Amino acid sequence: MHQYLEEKxxxxxxxxxxxxxxxxxxxxxxxxxxxxxxxxxxxxxLQTLNEYQQAKSIKGFGTIxxxxxxxLSAMEAGLVTEVLIRPGxxxxxxxxLARIVNHQLExxxxxxxxxxxxxxxxxxxxxxxxxxxxxxxxxxxxxxxTALKKQKLELDxxxxxxxxxxxxxxxxxxxQMNVEQLRLEQQAAARQLSLxxxxxxxxxxxxxxxxxxxxxxxxxxxxxxxxxTIYASIDGIARNxxxxxxxxxxxxxxxxxxxxxxxxxxxxxxxxYSAGQMALGLAATVRTPGGQVAAVVxxxxxxxxxxxxxxxxxxxxxxxxxxxxxxxxxxxxxxVSQSLLVLHRPDNFQQYPAWSLYQVDNQQARRSxxxxxxxxxxxxxxxxxxxxxxxxxxLPTALVSSEEFSL
Length: 407
Prior knowledge:
With 407 residues, this protein is an alpha+beta fold. It is built from three helices and 21 strands.
């Protein structure tokens, strides 16, 4: 009986131990299933890291700027009486923008008008006097010519009479002397007329120069007066308006700036350590909220300012949504390719603020320290200690908090 009781007690202990082990196993399984991350089915698909060859680019930030701009300044000091535009207004070539009044300059123009009229009147009067004198000298020459011809006729008529003895030779010789005297007088009159004509031409040129100088002075003053009315010399946008009606301005003072919007370029700031990779002609892409525009590097300002250099890009087109002073991001292709680890970007990637990457080995998922970022062609770029061909699981951080779990 005692032996039977011992065997029965030993059997009961085995049953109890077995039950306890089974209970512990069930508890562990229950805990595992209860604590296992609840991953939606559409997030549970494994991905394999692949290698992607991408042309290496340098990213920079900057603004859209005009290729040409014009600063309008006051040509003369004066009082601003009209300002016909507002900052940011689109203006057309030839449009009136502002007007400045300078009363002293207006008086100088009026005085120049009077002086010009006076000089022109004096010149006309002197020209008339010179013409009268020229007529007089010409009349003297004509009289000398007539007297010489008349005396020659008498001399020819008396020549035969003198040979016949009708007229004395002394009288004939006197007539010859008279002819010679008249010839000298005629030559003197012709010479005097020639000299006067040369003098008259010189005086006429001097008078014309005097009139021309007065005309030029008057035109110069009028041009200065006309310049006080400011017109747009190009089509563009007015900005940096620095004057208002009633304000006095000095000569050379800046009034406003006209921006030529017909041709825009991008001025991009690139980190100084990337300066050695910049070259003229490199392709680039300018990204804005309105879209992307292809571009080409046209100029590199290698002077370092605030840790960056300035790179100017020629835009391939001028979309309507591209505006002056618009902030943009640019990616400049260096011509050197780089290898990237990538995986496909989920369609709902933008719906979650943060994502976690889990490295999967033997059905065991372990959170990776690698980081992800958006890449080209709807891909995500993985940066970290992972390798090509590695299987990974991409999960929203809000859905899983475990560092490691079994699949």
